[in-house]
Amino acid sequence: MLLEDIKDKIHPELYSVLNKEKIKELRPAQEKAINAGLLDWKNLLVCTPTASGKTLIAEIAAMNSILKGIGKAIYIVPLKALATEKFKDFKRKYEHLAKIIVSIGDRDTADPFISKYDLVITTSEKLDSLIRHKAPWLKDVKVIIVDEIHLINDPGRGPTVEILITLLRQLLKDVQIIGLSATIGNPKELAKWLNAKLVEDSWRPVELRKGIYLNGNVEFY
Fold it and tell me: Angle at Cα 59 formed by Cα 51 and Cα 95, nearest 5°?
């Protein structure tokens, strides 16, 4: 599928940015996500290898909603460092089109100033704090991306992620949820719980080969 094929389905400014990024052809996972209802507000669980294009799937959903004036977007990541990285990338591409903020502070507050922003990049712990403080701008959110969603099985961080998703689904009845992961042991069960369509693909930009390293030599198998 070519980017040109979805030109009429996404905001012109989003198309312009992606075109400037020299994205001409969508990767297999991205095409599957489009066909599964990415642009039709369907919940998706995307389980594909690292570097297969999951971030662009989330990017298209979030920015299309923002630029079309449908609603805000939240991008949830597990680590502060990853939040900062995503923030820099989104700012580089979309600072001229949308107000973007990273919220990763440890203060347990509602941070009302966030209401001025279109895209909020945050950690699950910080978003949990915002929900508990009943941040009024949450009602305007239409797209939620949960990166590294497999951490829902993590003994330490998992309960927070699970409760967070549950609360968001109760608070925001018509929100689109997109879960991203390269490693999920039970994708069908998780997709069912999210009421999401499962997008799976094995394509990766660089072939993954396994081997044994011994005394300076690698024997592949």
Answer: 120
Q: CB-based burial of residue 66 (10 Å sphere; 0-12 exposed, 13-18 middle, 19+ buried)? A: buried
DSSP annotation string for 128-148: HHHHHTT-GGGGGEEEEEETT
Per-residue pLDDT of 98-126, as tens digits, reads 999 999 877 777 678 899 999 999 999 99
| Domain regions of the chain by residue span | 3-220
What's phi and psi for 123, nearest 5 deg?
Answer: -95, 165
Tokens of 184: 């999920």
Question: Got the DSSP string for 44-90?
Answer: EEEE--TTSSHHHHHHHHHHHHHHTTS-EEEEEES-HHHHHHHHHHH
At 139-188, the pLDDT tens digits run 999 999 999 999 998 888 889 899 999 999 999 989 999 999 988 888 99
CB atoms within 10 A of CB 209: 8
* CATH code of the domain made up of 3-220: 3.40.50.300
CA neighbours within 13 Å on the CB side: how many for 41?
9
In the structure encoding, which two tokens stand for residue 90, read together?
Answer: 């989104």
Q: How far is C-alpha 26 from the geometric centre of its chain's CA atoms?
A: 17
Distances in Å between the Cα of 56 and the Cα atoms of 22, 36, 119, 134, 174 are 13, 15, 15, 30, 22
